[in-house]
Automatic annotation (TrEMBL):
InterPro entries: DUF5069. This is DUF5069 domain-containing protein. It comes from the Bacteria. It holds the Pfam family DUF5069. Residues 21-152 form the DUF5069 domain. The lineage of its organism: Bacteria, Pseudomonadati, Verrucomicrobiota, Verrucomicrobiia, Verrucomicrobiales.
Amino acid sequence: MSTNTIHQDVRTLAKDLSIGYPRSPRTKLAGYVLAARALDKCRAELAGTQGEYHYACPLDSMFLDFSGIDPGAFKQAVAEGRSDEEMERWIREHATNSSKEEVIRWNNGLRDKRISELDTELQTYLEEYIDKNIPGRVVYHWFDVYDIEEKRLDAPVISDR
């Protein structure tokens, strides 16, 4: 089956990201942060309900690169209509990291990453992105940008007093 032909379950499992959000980058699947979000975006892209989101973006690529999973192979597995539980098994079978400790360190590093610790290009992008999409909010951690914008997390408002 090619990703041009998708299993009917993909449409049932896919979120409509034109009216909702993918899961938080903090939500784990198969032990990895970012994996559940990548799965949501991949399903939505296959079903044509991705809205402004797209699969295999730089954020998804962080998970795919770290886990050693080929983006095309992941998309093919999703196109076969696998449930979250089935994708969790698939990821565990195809990931090249075998150390639970290595994955935990990677997860915690991303969850705790402050915007000031990102490379200059991403800091510059986020400076403008935050001003445009979540103006007037105090944001220090990278994943908070997504969770605030997608209304999973509230952030203090900057006061001009």
